[in-house]
Amino acid sequence: MEVSLGAIPFDLDFHPSSPLVASGLINGDLHLYRYAAETQPERVFKINAHGEESCRAVRFADSGKIILTASPNCSLLATDVETGKTVARLENAHEEAINRLVNLTDTMIASGDDEGCIKVWDTRQHACCNSFDAHEDYVSDLTFVPDTMQILGTSGDGTLSVCSIKKNKVQSQSEFSEDELLSLVVMKNGKKVICGTQTGALLLYSWGHFKDCSDRFLGHPMSVDTVLKLDEDRLISGSYDGVIRLVGILPNKIIQPLAEHSEFPIERLAFSSDRQFIGSISHDQMLKLWDLEELLNTPQENNQEENEAVQADSDDDDDDDDEMDIDIAPPKSSGSKRKKSGNGGSSSISSFFDDL
């Protein structure tokens, strides 16, 4: 299933309980679609959320009643899912352009900006309750660990940060990597943090030992822009080369390519709430919904000579002993390829914005 968005998308998110998916576009638009198996997604509404500025981040909030969006104009916008009407707008939420949003609890959200600042917003206090100067460059990705009430962030400065909400401080930060960190996920029952990088390597950090990565896994030919945790041992990656891959962690192994979105970079991946579908967006301006079971049942081809060549190359480039398989040609989507340049729970979110 796929739909043309008409502009380059930056982010997407699935509704927590209904078959709805939202996407924010480079032209400032917010699109909401209803989907069902074996039918084309139906657009519920299309609004211009942020004027001439791009809509960089999208998240459902307040049990799916509203959609939060963030923009380079430093604003956060709340849109009603039922009506598409603006519920509230918070101007100057950050001093710099906002890149990322992540849900924390029913009453808390976090945002990250171009200058490395991460903020936590508490709807009960109607204010920003935490602010972390976590990085020296843009915040590329955020994830939340509920058990420890910590936010993990990656940045273009090549660092991984751990921000404690309880202690209101940056509790730990990695040394500067030579590579930009673009994406992250927590795996192995919380023992490992895996970061995708600009060069295509996956950096593995051991929990509690964040100063330097414990392992460096080569295998992606281009940058790893987005990652999803499938289970404790496997992740799904989206790369600059447009390919969606299934990757094993410890042992490190590219198990197989799952699909090719297009020949253009994959901007973001997301699971539907029931995990029946994976959504992908790319610079081809397409939103695609893939049946997860069908993807995982994609037959894997064998090419022993190429596999050995890639393994030998990885041994030359890296000292670890992790196993790695060759990237094989994945099934291509039937979607069109179009290239177009562009510009760069219980508490009410609406009352939170209104009272600021």
TrEMBL record:
Keywords: Developmental protein, Nucleus, Repeat, WD repeat. It is found in: Nucleus. Its main location: nucleus. Residues 300-356 are annotated as: Disordered. Pfam families: WDR55 (PF24796). Residues 303-326 have a biased composition (Acidic residues). Gene3D superfamilies: YVTN repeat-like/Quinoprotein amine dehydrogenase. Residues 346-356 have a biased composition (Low complexity). It comes from the Eukaryota. GO terms for cellular component: nucleus. PANTHER family: WD REPEAT-CONTAINING PROTEIN 55. Belongs to the WD repeat WDR55 family. This is WD repeat-containing protein 55.
